[in-house]
Structures are given as structure tokens and as C-alpha cells.
Here is the input.
Amino acid sequence: MPMTKVDLSFQSCGHTYEEADVVLFSVPMDATTSFRPGTRFAGNAIRLDSKGIEWYSPYRDRDLKQYKTADIGDLDLPVGAVEDALDIVYQTTKNILRDGKTPMVVGGEHLISYPVIKAVFEQYPDLHIIHLDAHTDLRTTFLGRTMSHATFMRHVHTLTGDGRIFQFGIRSGDKTEFDWASQGHVSIRQYDLVGLDEVVKTLKHKPVYITIDLDILDPAVLPGTGTPEPGGITYKELLWAIDQFETLDQIVGADIVELAPMLDPSGASTAAAVKTLRELILLLHKQRETRRS
Here is the structure.
């Protein structure tokens, strides 16, 4: 595990690994991407463009400089070896948790969330998942693969079982996925975030992992993603969701995935990702403060 800051870190997240409470890392992987590739470049694009936004968040009334965050950079992954790459992600997350720190992960494609969640689940067996996305990601196989960005949440369900996964913003998927979810396996809220505040109330005292696929945002807001889906939420709605997360007692990890920066030469998509990451890092630090008090 790296113990010093990387040359290019996100914002003021330049503390050493030993000092940090929250550890940021990125996963440069889009090995199972089925439409438009490019998410492997997200981590360092976000780091570079983070120099263009303030460290202070008026939404949280908190500043990144108040907290100790380590950015250990892009993981070094073997090209084309999906299972080996996922194991590296799993082991990295496991080490961070073992050291009493909170993981904040940047994708990469959404498959990278599975090994992260697996490691978190092993430490928190009562783990619940809040999943913001355009897609269900509940298939058993996709394009001949059992491990895919389109199947990762089905694998998460094999860990958690029924009643632990809450999806919002879903507007795309195979009919079999919706049918399977409706049998009580997964809670799906289609198209928007209605009811998120009520779900958060029920999970207030539970360990919660938050995974955000940036394609939950409408392509008019964030076109730089591999599988854009019209009909998504606005950025203000995403900020509202993060406001709701503030009331949870135990957020034990989070990720944002599926930014493909090269697909949006305007830079607007990367800017949205940067701002979202700032809000989530501050959220995780607030959670740690709450648990200490």
C-alpha cells in the first residue's frame, strides 16, 4: 500500500496514507465496456481538472483542507486480465478497511464496484447498498461474460441477499432484470429519486455503501459516459441526493464510475464528476466525525 502522496492528487488530498482518514484511489479499467470505451482515463482527468474548483463546498459548508485525505492514485492493473484486476481492487479495499480508513473509489467501468463492495461487505455483514444509475446492472450474463459492468449488481446481490439493494434513477435494462427485481430481490425506483429520503430514514443506523454511476445524470448534463441514457436527473437532483445521505450514521464507502472524459471535449462532464467527488469525500469525512462523537 502506498504510504506517500502521488505526484498528481485530487485537490488538497495530499496527505500520506498513514495520516489519512479517507483514502481515494482510482481504477483505470474498462475491460468489459460494451458501447463506448474511455472510463479508464477518468481518474487522472478528474485529478487534473480538480485544480479548477474550490476546495470549499457551499453545499456542505466544509472544506477539503479541514480533513486528512490520501490520494493513492490509479491502481496498477494488468491489461486484459479482468479477474486479476478485480482481485487487485479487492485487496486494495480490504487493506484500507483493515487500517481503519474509509475507501473512496473512482472508476473505471461499473464492474469495479463489485470487488470494492465485496471487501466492504466482509467487514460489515449487515451492509446495505444505495445505487444511483440509469441501468439495472442485474443480468446474469452479458455478451457472454458473467463478470461485466451489466452484471455487477447481480453479483453484489449474491453477497447481500434480498432487501439490501436500493436502486434509483433506473431507466434502462432487460425485461428479465426488472421482472427478477420485482420478486422482492432488489428495490428499483424508475426514472427519478422519489422516495430516496424515505429509504435513507430506514437505513439511518445501518452500514451503507453508495455507488453512483454518473450516467444517472441526463446526457444534456453529462454526455461524457459510455452508455448515455436520455431522461436522466439534473445535477441539482444529484446534490439533493447527497444532502439526504448526510443524515445517515454509517456510510462505510462510496464510488463514482463511468466517466469517459474523452467523449466530452467541452470538459463539462469531468467538471461534474470533480464536483461530485468533492462532495462525497466531504460526506465520508463527516460520517467519520459523527461516529467518533
Remarks:
- Residues 22-292 form a domain with the Arginase; Chain A fold (CATH 3.40.800.10).
- Helices lie at 42-49, 82-98, 113-123, 152-160, 175-185, 196-202, 235-245, 268-292.
